[in-house]
Amino acid sequence: MSIRIGILGYGNLGRGVECAIRQNPDMELVGVFTRRDPSAVKTFGVKAYHIDCAAGMKDEIDVMIICGGSATDLPKQTPEYAKIFNVVDSFDTHAKIPEHFAAVDASAKESGNVAVISVGWDPGMFSVNRLYAGAILPEGNDYTFWGKGVSQGHSDAIRRIEGVLDARQYTIPVPAALEAVRNGEAPELTTREKHTRECFVVAEEGADLERIEREIVTMPNYFADYDTTVHFISMEELQRDHSGIPHGGVVIRSGKTGLNKEHGHIIEYSLKLDSNPEFTSSVLVAMARAAYRMKREGMSGCKTIFDIPPAYLSLKSAEELRKTLL
Amino acid sequence: MSIRIGILGYGNLGRGVECAIRQNPDMELVGVFTRRDPSAVKTFGVKAYHIDCAAGMKDEIDVMIICGGSATDLPKQTPEYAKIFNVVDSFDTHAKIPEHFAAVDASAKESGNVAVISVGWDPGMFSVNRLYAGAILPEGNDYTFWGKGVSQGHSDAIRRIEGVLDARQYTIPVPAALEAVRNGEAPELTTREKHTRECFVVAEEGADLERIEREIVTMPNYFADYDTTVHFISMEELQRDHSGIPHGGVVIRSGKTGLNKEHGHIIEYSLKLDSNPEFTSSVLVAMARAAYRMKREGMSGCKTIFDIPPAYLSLKSAEELRKTLL
Q: Residue A277's pLDDT is what?
């Protein structure tokens, strides 16, 4: 019997989930649930329903994958829908994870459902790699570098500046910093030493480019602590050269073992992603399989990637996994 | 209360475990158990007992880490000691894992103990990374490269050749192959295209070096399928330049997502290890923590890294993990 999946929210992430389900033969997509007029939502084939129909389809859906944004959607939606469904989300506001966990856990425990939160690549695969590496090498340092890739939040921040029509911001690790870490030098790095930021900006005709550039590079939190480069380009160039949503990054643990810490070790996990949302969607879908299995085993409550036996993510049986992948 | 650890077998691995325990404040090393005369075993400080004393110390040890070899020790010892203790081993004969699992599982289920087998880096961390990556990107290819590092088995094979006093063999990934994989080219690679082998050999005075070299490079299974380089060096050079046991390698998944597989993704996990046995020991110790916790939760039987929630490996609490690493 297939695992029956629902998608709540149909943006880049939701579309990615629809594609990913097709690569997983043990899953079946029941429908997309949207706040918009369902007849206006163009999917790749799956039926769209109004979000208010979701609760009534409780018995037709094993896991609801919630594809909203972390700022306002997920803090409300995940606890709400965990009362009805097993759910998975990609909540990525790191500082608010404990709070989100508590709210979702209360809902999911009450309903007896399983809710997997904060999966994707960071939080998600990067987090679990930090955990493994730190458990193996207790004496050491963690490093996370992001990019090269498009930061949606920073691109949005530039778009809010007066005179800007559109913008794309790339986060780029500083090669020398990355190399020092990989060489086991265990450097202490400031924000500025770890990443640079490169911005491609389309300005309104006649806009004051110097002012726009100054507003970008001095913007607190977003750019002021980084070395930032600004390029003004045409809308055609932006659409031609910067329409993708690539991202990636590396998590490195540099640690020591031996009687006198005489041996150095480098553990590195890296991602190079052509499509940030499609990769996140692919993680969400594997986690939906895990949620389904945990529920069947009688578990309930909120779970993170830290709590889930890796085998639960795979379509393969335990025997097959031991035989082919161990 | 500390987790009380025993070490069964005291070679490179056992010594590595003794060092690793010191980095884990929730653990306490009870003793080393050896087939040799305990008074002749020089540890870094822990008491050595004869292996026959182990069973009698059942109540003083929470987890026995079995540090024997995969060829003859572990197939016997792990099932045997799983009858008495929670155990962890690093059994690494990939083809015989299903058989080893079955034997250990029967013992551990009967005794109600938890036995974690085949942990280290391959099998172990490489395996779990293959599992995660394959579950996330079902459409893709796996690649594993080993090295640059010392292969103990290949070094031993050279030492068995007549006229050879000592030898060290390095396994080295072919840079062009690694680059093609990282570029997402998803090449099909033969054994020869993936790795080269480099041998440093100390020959007896007057030995026929041409014959030794020929015997090495044509040796079936070990060298015949590889491009192999042989260097004859002095015993002094061997001891000066090749006394370490470094190793490492990379596991890469190259996969596609999107409606028409239009987006490529590269997931890479890599290790650069100054000491192969000390890293393996560090994994064994983290897994001992997991075995202890699983037992306390009432689980029993044989487990692999695939079955263990990552959080069980860490000293940190679930709350702390979510707050600091997620």
A: 96
For residue B302, the cross-strand partners are: B115
Task: Note the residue count of chain A.
Answer: 326
pTM value?
Answer: 0.96
Question: What b/e string do you get for A19-45 counting C-beta neighbours within 10 Å, with b at 16 or more?
Answer: bbbbbbeebebbbbbbeeebeebebee
- A146 forms beta bridges with A249
Contact B131 A97 (CB under 8 A): no
Ranges of chain B whose pLDDT falls below 50 = none
Residue A159 Cα, gap to closest chain B Cα (Å): 26
Q: Per-residue pLDDT for A244 more than 90? A: yes
- The tens digit of pLDDT for each residue in A76-92 reads 999 999 999 999 999 99
Rounded to two decimals, the ipTM of the complex is 0.96
What pLDDT, on a 0 to 100 scale, did the predictor assign at position A82? 98
Q: Do A282 and B136 touch (CB under 8 A)?
A: yes
* Full 3-state SS string of chain B: CCEEEEEECCCHHHHHHHHHHCCCCCEEEEEEEECCCHHHCCCCCCCEEEHHHCHHHHHHCCEEEECCCCCCHHHHHHHHHHCCCEEECCCCCHHHHHHHHHHHHHHHHHHCCEEECCCCECCEHHHHHHHHHHHHCCCEEEEEEECCEECHHHHHHHHCCCCEEEEEEEEEECHHHHHHHHCCCCCCCCHHHHEEEEEEEEECCCCCHHHHHHHHHCCCCCCCCCEEEEEECCHHHHHHHCCCECEEEEEEEEEEECCCCCEEEEEEEEEEECEHHHHHHHHHHHHHHHHHHHHHCCCCEEECHHHCCHHHHCCCCHHHHHHHCC
Residue in B3, B70, B257, B289 to test binding to A, most A beta-carbons within 10 Å: B257
Residue B1's pLDDT is 81
Q: Write out A110-149 in H/E/C secondary structure.
A: HHCCEEECCCCECCEHHHHHHHHHHHHCCCEEEEEEECCE
Q: What is the residue-averaged pLDDT of chain A?
A: 97
Listing DSSP states for A266-323 in one string gives EEEEEEEESBHHHHHHHHHHHHHHHHHHHHHTT--EEE-GGGS-GGGG-SS-HHHHHH
Report whether pLDDT(A1) > 90.
Answer: no
Portion 198-227 of A in contact with B at CB < 8 A: none
Interface probe with A: pick from B273, B280, B326, most Cβ of A within 10 Å: B326
Q: What percent of chain A has pLDDT over 90?
A: 99
CB count, 10 Å around CB of B112? Answer: 12
Alpha carbons A272 and A279: distance in angstroms, whole number: 10
Structure tokens at B28: 């306490």
C-beta separation of B201 from B167 below 8 A: yes
- Interchain contact B148–A (C-beta under 8 A): no
Alpha-carbon gap, residue A194 to A181, rounded angstroms: 11
Q: Are A164 and A198 in contact (CB under 8 A)?
A: no
Q: Does B313 touch chain A (CB under 8 A)?
A: yes
Beta strand B140-146 with B301-303: parallel, antiparallel or unpaired? Answer: unpaired
Q: What is the pLDDT of residues A44-64, one digit of tens each?
A: 999 999 999 999 999 999 999
